[in-house]
Write a structure and sequence with these properties.
Blueprint lengths: L2 H4 L2 H18 L19 E7 L2 E6 L5 E3 L5 H10 L1 H37 L7 E5 L5 H9 L4 E5 L3 H9 L3 E3 L13 E7 L8 H11 E12 L4 H6 L13 E2 L2 H10 L2 E7 L5 H11 L7 H8 L3 H13 L5 E8 L1
Parallel strand pairs: 4-5, 4-7, 5-6, 7-8
Antiparallel strand pairs: 1-2, 2-3, 3-9, 8-11, 10-11
Helix pairs in contact: 2-4, 4-5
Length: about 325
């Protein structure tokens, strides 16, 4: 898989331009921004820091997570996601142009993986319930339902238009966030949250919300970005993965372990099965050759043969050094 398969460069750059315009319009007044401690471990000691599009990112000196602080409060972030042109663009134009590629490259493999996880970790063979947090357009719900593994396939989606779209496809949807789920929300045996936690105001509150939705013996699968990844560590403030205020939590592997423990969950498995780090760095350096990296890295990602790049990517994935992280948790 190549970056362009799921994130065409021109289309993604248009999205990032809209993000920057939204920031100028919706965050012109930043006097109400709030300082936070590390969202992973709660530490207050700051290591490296940089500014991106007028927002400050800090690296935790304790667990090396990367996070935005000061940041907008929850109400301001909610208004951003309701009004921002970049959000609308992602949900309409970007999704329309990449929907089928994402279905084939991302959602179908994820659905097979989810069914396999259920077979491996759950005792129930025909009565298990599945729930996706941040159901969006319902594509994953469709693919999971097609596996026939679950007795019920449901979703949690806070956006009214997307929740309605999922209902039109026949799925039961709770119109809320993980943090604001009603007390009587039906519990699920397998939960997923793909590329959600990097956006939320409080990762700790988010995981506690997932815990309330899990059955005893249930599991939750999360994917997100980690600051330990090769492309983020190499490109740092130049990384397109770092774009405020969408991606505000880019935690380290150690940070995720600390966060899971603080939420009262058990870490079953952490892996970084990413396939795009080398491709992302190479594409970014070709697009912006003035970015400073070592000559070794530049040659590796732009001039080495495909077999070498593929072997290096496999090394990153095998040693928790890819920026795409996969986390499996259960109730402690």
């Amino acid at each position: 898989m190549k970056e362009s398969d799921i994130r065409p460069q021109d289309l993604f750059n248009r999205y990032l331009d809209l993000v920057r315009r939204d920031n100028e319009t919706l965050f012109a007044d930043r006097t109400g921004f709030i300082d936070i401690e590390c969202p992973a471990c709660g530490g207050s000691q700051i290591g490296r820091r940089f500014e991106k599009d007028g927002f400050e990112y800090r690296e935790c000196a304790d667990c090396f997570s990367l996070y935005q602080s000061p940041r907008p409060d929850e109400a301001t972030l909610a208004r951003f996601y309701h009004e921002a042109e970049s959000v609308k663009f992602w949900g309409t134009e970007f999704y329309r142009q990449t929907a089928e590629a994402r279905r084939e490259k991302l959602f179908k493999p994820r659905a097979r993986d989810i069914a396999a996880l259920a077979n491996r970790h759950l005792n129930a063979t025909g009565e298990a319930r599945f729930c996706d947090i941040g159901a969006g357009y319902g594509t994953l719900l469709e693919e999971v339902a097609a596996t026939g593994r679950f007795a019920a396939v449901t979703g949690v989606e806070p956006a009214p238009n997307l929740a309605a779209l999922c209902r039109d496809k026949g799925f039961e949807i709770i119109e809320a966030t993980a943090e604001t789920l009603p007390a009587n929300a039906p519990r699920a045996d397998v939960l997923t949250a793909f590329e959600v936690i990097e956006h939320v105001p409080s990762p700790l509150a988010f995981l506690k919300g997932l815990k309330r939705l899990m059955t005893n013996g249930g599991i939750a699968l999360l994917t997100t970005l980690t600051a330990d990844g090769f492309d983020i560590q190499t490109l740092w403030q130049h990384s397109k993965a770092v774009h405020p205020p969408h991606h505000i939590n880019l935690l380290s592997v150690a940070g995720y372990r600390r966060l899971i423990e603080r939420a009262g969950l058990a870490c079953v498995e952490i892996a970084t099965p990413g396939k795009l780090d080398v491709d992302i760095v190479g594409n970014t350096l070709k697009e912006n050759p003035e970015i400073e990296v070592t000559p070794f890295i530049r040659r590796l990602v732009t001039e080495s043969d495909p077999e070498t790049r593929e072997a290096f990517q496999a090394f990153l994935a095998d040693h928790l050094l890819s920026s795409h992280i996969r986390i499996l948790v259960s109730i402690d």
